[in-house]
Design a protein that fits this description.
10 strands, 30% strand
Length: 240
């Protein structure tokens, strides 16, 4: 599994530039990896940091950008650094998450193809069988497209879904019922969602908590390549 090719990388950079309200070329390769793109937004209560390949971007109030100026991109991918920037403003950090991308169709599954449902009710049934933290991380029922593998008794055992992201990417989430894990079902259903996204002309994107090796390994088994890190800190509006 090689690196993401330059054409796909340009599309990913464009999508994130637009997501962060930056010029379309803001995340183009820069001679200095720490010469990050910035956007001052003094009305926001969220500080957003992205590292994508060798480029990075920071969006937030001016005071946050000034405080971050002495930190490298690598340091800003750490939640402790981001929280230290906001320690006097009641910051709460979401992430960091590892960003990985799927640009290739999956190899066919050996044996009969699985039975796949596109009903949201089946996603809800998988969620009901899973720990709340796993459900909140995957957010499959909140997506726009759903794919749920049903067993021989037509009971839902694992699901994946995606939402279109800035018109270029498909943000994918995956969830497997605990009793059916470690059987390859997660990678299989992730592959089904990925192939559908590619059919729609999108690049598949998977966000995995950086400290969750199981989630990152699942993405790798589904053919995703890790490319970056994203984190955000929400601050109390009373401290803006």
């Amino acid at each position: 599994m090689g690196p993401v090719d330059s054409h796909h990388l340009d599309i990913i950079r464009l999508a994130w530039s637009r997501e962060l309200g930056l010029p379309d070329d803001a995340l183009a390769a820069r001679p200095d990896a720490d010469d990050r793109a910035v956007r001052v937004d003094d009305d926001t209560d969220t500080i957003r940091f992205l590292r994508l390949g060798e480029t990075s971007a920071l969006v937030g109030p001016r005071w946050a950008i000034e405080r971050a100026d002495g930190h490298t991109a690598e340091e800003l991918t750490e939640s402790a650094t981001l929280l230290a920037l906001t320690q006097d403003r009641s910051g709460r950090c979401a992430g960091p998450v590892t960003l990985a991308y799927g640009t290739d169709y999956q190899d066919p599954v050996a044996g009969p193809p699985p039975l796949v449902s596109h009903e949201r009710d089946h996603v809800r049934q998988v969620e009901a069988a899973c720990p709340p933290d796993d459900v909140a991380e995957a957010r499959v029922a909140d997506r726009e497209r759903w794919f749920t593998i049903l067993d021989d008794a037509q009971q839902p055992v694992g699901c994946a879904g995606y939402t279109e992201f800035q018109g270029f990417l498909a943000d994918v989430g995956v969830l497997t019922a605990p009793e059916f894990r470690r059987r390859g079902l997660g990678a299989t259903v992730a592959g089904i969602a990925t192939d559908d996204a590619l059919d729609a002309g999108l690049i598949a994107q998977c966000r995995s908590p950086r400290g969750n090796p199981a989630s990152r390994a699942l993405a790798a088994r589904a053919g995703y390549r890790e490319l970056g890190t994203y984190a955000e800190v929400t601050i109390s509006r009373s401290t803006l």
